């Protein structure tokens, strides 16, 4: 339990440095392609809010695309059922850690909900961890950010396929 508290406190550290302006690129896998029109489908929603959600879900999907097959190699059951087989205390610790990390992210990047509900701060970089990982003005970093968003999109589709396959066939992936 002590390790969960220590890890949770690490997630709650808020970076005192403010970025100047968030970098939000299209992330399109094709040159000059407009795949998602924010003005029609998501009218009135901040593009940075959508990017934040897409980055978080993409990162979780990238982790899941590795974790599900790995669990199946070392256990007898389906990878999608392994979390519910954990002890209740461990499940609670994992969910608590996820809650604290999301709360720290909301505290760091969201506007006060009394003033503006579901709005990100103007200087918040979507997907920011709270500490400087790279130079946001570097062209190589911008390319890396595009690769991250595209790999996350692919991972979301891939993990969805893995989950559906296990639910339909009731067999392991490999």
From TrEMBL:
Keywords (A to Z) from UniProt: Chloroplast, Photosynthesis, Plastid
The keyword Transferase appears for this protein: no
GO cellular component: membrane; plastid
GO biological process: photosynthesis, light harvesting
Location of this chain's protein in the cell: Plastid
PANTHER family the record matches: CHLOROPHYLL A/B BINDING PROTEIN (PTHR21649)
Protein's name according to its UniProt entry: Uncharacterized protein
Organism: viral metagenome
């Amino acid at each position: 339990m002590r390790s969960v508290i220590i890890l949770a406190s690490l997630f709650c550290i808020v970076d005192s440095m403010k970025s100047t302006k968030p970098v939000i690129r299209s992330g399109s896998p094709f040159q000059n392609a407009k795949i998602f029109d924010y003005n029609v489908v998501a009218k009135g929603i901040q593009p940075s809010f959508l990017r934040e959600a897409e980055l978080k879900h993409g990162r979780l999907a990238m982790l899941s695309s590795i974790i599900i097959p790995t669990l199946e190699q070392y256990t007898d059951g389906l990878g999608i059922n392994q979390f519910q087989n954990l002890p209740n205390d461990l499940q609670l610790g994992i969910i608590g850690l996820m809650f604290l990390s999301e709360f720290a992210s909301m505290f760091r990047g969201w506007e006060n909900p009394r003033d503006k509900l579901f709005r990100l701060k103007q200087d918040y970089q979507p997907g920011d961890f709270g500490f400087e990982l790279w130079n946001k003005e570097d062209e190589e970093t911008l390319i890396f950010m595009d690769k991250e968003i595209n790999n996350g999109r692919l991972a979301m589709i891939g993990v969805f396929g893995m989950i559906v396959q296990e639910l339909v066939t009731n067999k392991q992936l490999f």
